[in-house]
Amino acid sequence: MSATCVINGWERPEKTPMLKLYHLPISFNSRRVWIALLEKGLSFELIPMKLNGDQLTPEFLALNPFHHIPVLVDEAFSLFESLAILDYLEAKYPTPSLVPSDPQGLGTVKMINLVTLNELLPATTPLIQHSMGFITLDEQRIANTKEKVAVVLNFFETSLGDRSYIVGNTLTLADIVAGTMVGFLPQMGVSLSAYPQLTAWTKQLSQRESWQQTEPQPEEIDKFRETMKKLMAQRGS
Predict the structure, then answer these.
(1) Does residue 85 lie in a domain region?
(2) What are the coiled-coil residue ranges (predicted)?
């Protein structure tokens, strides 16, 4: 596995350890951690994964026995599950802060994060698989899936209100976690035209340097699609 060093304009003291992030560029879970690292101006090393079997190597399984990404390594300490990683980064590197200090704001961030993972991601997964060509959904299944997604989008639209960000006027983990998924929905055939606040919000997020630097490239998506199709064909043979 090759590695790419990312400094992001931050001069790292000689004795400061460099973080390592095992990731997949097109993964929502990976991208939210990647963005948080950039927003905090931390020095880190990106270790890309292909998920073509490299997640099953003894080296990687020693970091995560469940063989999925992302994984963050900080010296001898390793951590997986993206929300746990985000909490860890916030606790160890609190400046700049990506969580509000008041109880209501903190609760809102946690709620939005969990709704994204527990409601939006499961509802969206069939559309992702359909758009990648892994499965074929009929029109009724697509419509039913979009209805589930709409419940979450309506909630997010109401939560956002007329604010620039979900909690006040400052970027938080809620924007990072929800924004990386919502902004990708149009590519899966889910229009945001009925959600003017979300549309403006996703546009604003897309203009941030961290978003632009981590935007999945078409060739990365195509490469992942072909890799997965080959693996699925091998398993089916």
Answers:
(1) yes
(2) none
Same domain, 85 and 110: no
User: How far is Cα 117 from Cα 101, in angstroms, rounded to an integer?
Assistant: 23
Q: Are residues 196 and 114 in the same domain?
A: yes
Q: Which residues contact 216 (CB under 8 A, 6 or more apart)?
A: 25, 26, 31
Q: What is the pLDDT along the chain (237 residues), one digit of tens a residue?
A: 444 444 444 344 444 558 999 998 888 999 999 999 999 999 999 999 888 888 889 999 999 999 899 999 999 999 999 999 999 999 999 999 999 999 999 999 999 999 999 999 999 988 888 877 777 888 998 899 999 999 999 999 999 999 999 998 899 999 999 999 999 899 888 999 999 999 999 999 999 999 999 998 777 777 777 766 666 566 664
Q: How far from chain centre, in Å, is Cα 197? A: 21
Residue 132: which domain range?
103-206
8-state DSSP, 216: P
Same domain, 56 and 150: no
pTM confidence score: 0.87
